[in-house]
Amino acid sequence: MDNTKKILRELKADAMLTGAADLRAWLTGFHSTFGFVYTDAQESVFFTDPRYAEGAKEALRNSYTGVAIAKNETTVFDYIKSKKIKRLAVPVERLTQPEYERLRRKFKLVDSMPAFVSAMSVKTEEELSCISRACEIAEEAFSQLLGFLKEGVTENETAGYLEYLMRKCGAQDRSFETIVAFGKNSSVPHHASDDTKLKSGMPVLLDFGCKVNGYCSDITRTLWFGGKPDEEFLAVYNDVLASHLLARDQIRAGMKGKEADAVARSYLAGRGLDKFFTHSLGHGIGINIHEYPSLGPNGEGVLQDGMAFSIEPGVYFEGKFGIRIEDSVTLKDGRVVSFMKSDKNLTVL
Ligand SMILES: [Mn+2]
Questions:
Q1: Cα 248–289–171 angle (5° rounding)?
Q2: Lowest mean pLDDT among 81-90, 134-143, 303-312
Q3: What is the whole-number distance in angstroms between the Cα of residue 207 and the centre of ligand 1?
Q4: Lower CB count within 10 Å: N or C terminus of the chain?
């Protein structure tokens, strides 16, 4: 069923208006920086500016949603005011304060956000194949990157080269700012890549991903550069990997996010490492790099077939090293299927 109708049907509203780029992209399958989708029982219209008119018409030619040109928000708001509607559904948290005030004066507002969050979390086959392709490209780029990692390269040039490789392999963009962390920088889970140079005897943590048709991949690999890995590093690496594989094997559809998180967390607790696992086990992946559901200690959302999310246990020793091993996965027939094919045993360069 058409996504606009699917969402509207779930809401107690006469019409809905959607401006947020990610929600709009999901409704129309068309990605753009400006636009609004207006939908009521009779029609659905995608208002965009002339830059996108041609692309939008092409993308929506077989869709319930038609295309109209709008110079700005006022054109759109005037159109809606001309309609005889009372209850208008909008994604409240995605409106600016002025937008909210403006609409609130005219309509009884209903929040459409919960309906979007739940509908977008379960992916169609087509969406899953975009994510799968984005994962495949990220892995291919990673394998091509390994030969580039030489003593003296900086984190920043490594990040830039990895992003180049993803595009070269077919990605349209990176899905978030690439994280490259050498040595003790790896103990900061979201280290901002800088001019630190790679030296022999350092761990290397790479967290990256790319987009295909607007859908993201997310992957983290930690490897060892130069000589024999430090013994403590190797032992912790194997524990993080074991917790990842255990989560992959034991997470089931029907579990809450927090139960999924607990699988890896309790394993790491058994190894005395849980206090160094300072973030959630995972997060939903889709048009956005972080989506519903959360696989964290507070995750109340129930995992379902067709959801796509990350599994990314990590252990961080401040000032020493950090290790994170992340795959993007989906749930099929109740079980986890990873999109990633590459070996997760420690790579030593
Ligand atoms: Mn992630």
A1: 100
A2: 81-90
A3: 8
A4: N
* Alpha-carbon span 28 to 8, nearest angstrom: 14
Q: What angle do CA 301, 276, 327 make, to 5 degrees?
A: 50
| CA pair distance 260, 302, nearest whole angstrom | 10
Average pLDDT, the chain: 96
Separation of CA 312 and ligand 1 centre (Å) = 7
Q: How far is the CA of 78 from the centre of ligand 1 (A)?
A: 41
CATH number, domain 3-121, options 3.40.50.20, 1.25.40.390, 3.40.50.1220, 3.40.350.10: 3.40.350.10
Amino acid of residue 337: V
114 cis-preceded (ω within 30 degrees of 0): no
The CATH homologous superfamily for domain 125-338 is Creatinase/methionine aminopeptidase superfamily (3.90.230.10)
Confidence at residue 1, expressed as pLDDT on a 0 to 100 scale = 67
- Tell me: the pLDDT tens digits for 150-192? 999 999 999 999 999 999 999 999 999 999 999 999 999 999 9
For the chain, the domains span 3-121, 125-338
